[in-house]
Automatic annotation (TrEMBL):
Its EC number is 3.5.4.33. Residues 2-120 form the CMP/dCMP-type deaminase domain. Its cofactor is Zn(2+). This is tRNA-specific adenosine deaminase. GO terms for molecular function: tRNA-specific adenosine-34 deaminase activity; zinc ion binding. InterPro entries: APOBEC/CMP_deaminase_Zn-bd (IPR016192), CMP_dCMP_dom (IPR002125), Cytidine_deaminase-like (IPR016193), MafB19-deam (IPR058535), tRNA_aden_deaminase (IPR028883). It holds the Pfam family MafB19-deam. Zn(2+) binds at H53, C83, C86. It catalyses: adenosine(34) in tRNA + H2O + H(+) = inosine(34) in tRNA + NH4(+). Belongs to the cytidine and deoxycytidylate deaminase family. ADAT2 subfamily. The lineage of its organism: Bacteria, Bacillati, Bacillota, Bacilli, Bacillales.
Length: 155
């Protein structure tokens, strides 16, 4: 559990970078054989690109680093449960293990609304460890959206 907490802290650092940019504070890191090979955070507002979620960004970086679309010996750490798009990218990149912090009751596809990562109909499945540093990850998101609502009220 200590290893999971260590890498989730790195993902939280990435989420903090997103928050500084006014992005939804979600961060991710991809670990290969105990080493962080990719790190990223949400950039959707900055880039105005739908696929600029933290998970997709680190998957792209890792593909470049490893030189393959297959990320079969990697673990993805992300502060929020992946959405359908990101869960699909995880499956397509063959990531065998996902660790996430906060559950996503509105879009979570790694166990909350559905579990795309463990559906027998797909040719690949990803094991999931959820709730790692959940409180810290959830509070960061809750605080962000609370502040956003208050700013809108003042306008």
């Amino acid at each position: 559990m200590e290893e999971e907490r260590h890498f989730m802290k790195v993902a939280i650092e990435e989420a903090e970078k997103a928050q500084e940019l006014g992005e939804v504070p979600i961060g991710a890191v991809l670990v290969h054989k105990g080493e962080v090979i990719a790190r990223g955070h949400n950039l959707r507002e900055t880039t105005q690109k739908t696929t600029s979620h933290a998970e997709c960004i680190v998957i792209d970086q890792a593909n470049e680093k490893i030189g393959s679309w297959r990320l079969e010996e990697c673990t993805l750490y992300v502060t929020l449960e992946p959405c359908p798009m990101c869960a699909g990218a995880i499956l397509q990149s063959r990531i065998p293990h996902l660790v996430y912090g906060a559950y996503d009751p509105k879009a979570g596809c790694a166990g909350t609304l559905m579990n795309l990562l463990d559906d027998e109909r797909f040719n690949h499945r990803t094991s999931i460890q959820s709730g790692v540093m959940e409180e810290e990850c959830r509070e960061m998101l809750s605080s962000f959206f609370r502040n956003l609502r208050e700013k809108k009220k003042k306008k």
